Amino acid sequence: MSKSTQIAQPASSASQPQRKKIKPKVEKQLYVRAGGRCHICNTYLLESTDIGYYQLNRGEMAHIVGQSQGPKSPRGNHSLAKELRDEVDNLLLLCADHHHTIDDVVARGDYTVEQLHEIKRRHEDRILHVTGLSAHSSNTTIVRMLGSIRGYTTHLTRAECNSATIWHNPSRFADFALDINRQGTEINLVPFDNPEGDVEFYYKNVRKCIDSGLKYIRQGIAERQIEHLSIFGFARIPALVYLGFSLGNKVGNTLFQRRRVDDKHWHWQVDAPTHSFEWQLIQAGNDSKRVAVILNVSGTIHPTELPEHIDDSYYVFLITVIGITPSPDVILSVESLDNFRLCYRQWLAHLENGHKLAPEIHCFSAIPCAIAIACGLDLMPNAHPALVVYDRMPRDFAIALTVNE
After folding, report:
1. SMODS-associated and fused to various effectors domain: which residues (predicted)?
2. Of 204, 223, 224, 218, which is closest to residue 248 (Cα–Cα)?
3. Which of 1, 158, 255, 333 can pair with 272 through a Cys bridge, CB separation 3.0 to 4.6 Å?
4. Of 56, 61, 54, 38, nearest to 46 (Cα)?
């Protein structure tokens, strides 16, 4: 090649500062501690499924405190010694999008050294916990039912379900077998209008929606592909009772209750106080076939509020918490839930003895969502009376639906 046709070569790199390469040992430590996932979004970085399936490494190592101390280095003006900046404690494993974001001039102020260390700690603690689970820990099939209560609804993501089941004791891995499209909610009652306009029509549609949503779970149980259920519910009480009764007790289950005391909304609170419950007869009627029950846990229903047809002929029972005023935060621990269920089953056993010919129980309840589901789960088909579940609209009680007919 003649001198006139030679292509200009770039200036020697010797005059330009070079980024120091991360040691292979440190890189391996980072990938193991991160579980091969982005510290921020949890995306798996050792494969790509965006345009087909490929096994490739999409991970990028990012410095919390910039590698150099120059003004252009993200968070580089930190006091961390330069010789420590390429160690694993100062590195994040990120996807390309989040690497770009945290290092961009616009976003740096929102991603301080302290905040990035906290993101790193939480992610790596979770990976360590999950990978330390016993090999005997089994999967659990998620059942989510979300509706509106007095115009209010909530969100329940797959990640929240996974977190709740993993940190529960015993730990289980969440399987979304009912979520056919791997998105959304298995049973979605939110689109339905509130029942005040037409109670019968509303709950007719609710029952159809629940039956349809549980079609696959019944099939999975019948084929022994499902051994355990984790049940999350937020909806009106009669709908939750119907969900519980429809699921039954053919396989093991764990109920989860949404709570408002901290940001782990669906986790049972390990250190919450444990409450006990009692049942009592508050009105002795003259017809043992007529039975009503008031459940006061998250609120209080007074006997004077019951409909007129629940007259003096009825035996009226009350199940309530012992020693404290009913409130929304009575059920914060799984032990409290278990205590309610024990009391409820003991009361049902009493009915089998003293009210054996009662065809139905009229149920008026101020209870958290998990207890509503439990009331359906613990009702034995063809053994206990039918449960006539009432809904408040918004002051007077109306019959919503009947289970175990």
Report:
1. 216-393
2. 218
3. 333
4. 56
- CATH match of 277-403 with 3.40.50: yes
CB-CB neighbours of 183 under 10 Å: 8
- Residue count of the chain, please give it: 405
Characterize 385-397 residue by residue with b for buried, 16 or more Cβ atoms within 10 angstroms of its Cβ, and e for exposed.
bebbbbbbeeeeb
CB 146 within 8 A of CB 154: yes
Name the token pair of 113: 């050294």
Task: Strands of 272-392 (E only): list them.
Answer: 277-283, 291-296, 315-321, 360-366, 386-392
**Please, how many CA atoms are within 13 Å of residue 194, restricted to the half-sphere of its CB?**
11
Q: What is the pLDDT of residue 164?
A: 92
Q: Decide: 206 and 239 in contact? Cβ < 8 Å.
A: yes
Residues sharing a CB contact under 8 Å with residue 153, sequence separation 6 or more, in sequence order: 146, 147, 190, 234
Task: Give percent above pLDDT 90 in the chain.
Answer: 60
The distance of Cα 295 from the centroid of its chain, to the nearest Å, equals: 25
The dihedral sign for the CA sequence 91, 92, 95, 100: negative
Give the separation between CA 79 and CA 82, rounded to whole angstroms.
9
